Amino acid sequence: xxEKKLVFSGVQxxxxxxxxxxxxxxxxxxxxxxxxxxxxxVVDLHAITVFQKPNELxxxxxxxxxxxxxxxxxxxxxxxxxxxxxxxxxxxxWILNCVSRIGWLNRMTQFKDKAGxxxxxxxxxxxxxxxxxxxxxxxxKATHVPVxxxxxxxxxxxxxxxxxxxNDYNCEDFFPLPEPLIxxxxxxxxxxxxxxxxxxxxxxxxxxxxxxxxxADDINKKIKKAKSDSEPIPDNIKSxxxxxxxxxxxxxxSEVSKINLDKAINExxxxxxxxxxxKLAEALINEIVPVGKEIKKLLENKPHLEQILxxxxxxxxxxxxxxxxxxxxxxxxx
Length: 334
Ligand code: AMP
Ligand code: TRP
Fold this sequence. Notes:
The protein has helices spanning 19-33, 44-47, 54-70, 88-97, 102-105, 109-115, 124-139, 152-168, 216-225, 237-241, 244-256, 261-268, 273-299, 302-331; strands at residues 6-11, 37-42, 79-82, 144-146, 179-181. It has 334 residues and is mainly alpha-helical. It folds into two domains: 6-187 and 302-331, Rossmann fold (3-Layer(aba) Sandwich), CATH 3.40.50.620; 206-297, Tyrosyl-Transfer RNA Synthetase (Orthogonal Bundle). α8 links the parallel β4 and β5 (179-181). The protein is globular. Tryptophan binds at residues 8-10, 12, 43, 46, 133, 136-137, 145, 147, 151, 154.
């Protein structure tokens, strides 16, 4: 990748990170860090679009930083910081609120899912959340954004906003149009209880997800209880696709074992799900338990985590202020 490319991504500090975050985002963050300049942000302003208890929010910000480090992000290579410490995010979000269109936001499926049946009661912040996400990315003029498949629509909106800003203010190419980097093999890790729903922090049952801090015992129990199928494992993707829970387990197995899906199906076809589950639990324990241990160890030294955020914020702020100066000028703000 050339020097002009810049990666930006954000993770909400809303508690336990899980296997979906790990495969959909964090593992990708780490491999990108080896090739290109990366900025990784703990997006606390996004988190408060749904009420967060202040003490829990503070804890969760540090835990997210610990999770970044435990999966292999290096603060000497990547910029790691929290969103609210760089005020440019909020300022640019306001400017982009005035560029983005109500009709565009009305199409956002995540808002519809999160707001539920009573949309009148959702916060205004939740509604304009995608504009803040566009601001996060465009504040640094990031070109590439590693995310899970659930964020694709928001990324498309960010591109529309960038394009409209460039057109409105007559500055072609001012904002690059950010490209999503979505994992091909496993862009969406599904719930262990319902293969049609994504694995998420907000699903009530903890048995629906593998958390990064789960013990070997937790992982064993959760995989054993995971929904599967009564027939033996099929030998082709077409048949598997009709069984979303089974497909999800094989997908996770292929990802954690770093083999492609065909190979995983070959290995498992004709076998009982108990066989797959034993192998899967073993592989997940090897991969996830050391990460969880490291998160817990890092959380014992909070001043160290706070220091990482502080240094990251300083670096992020320098880039943000430089870009904001030009943005204000384009818009005509004195
Ligand atoms: P969030 O926790 O919602 O801030 O998500 C952080 C990152 O993890 C984003 O890039 C999401 O797209 C990704 N992610 C969250 N849940 C999943 C999932 N079940 N499968 C794949 N990626 C996910
Ligand atoms: N909306 C993302 C999520 O819920 C988090 C996020 C906020 C983000 N700002 C971002 C991701 C900028 C990528 C780039 O997962």
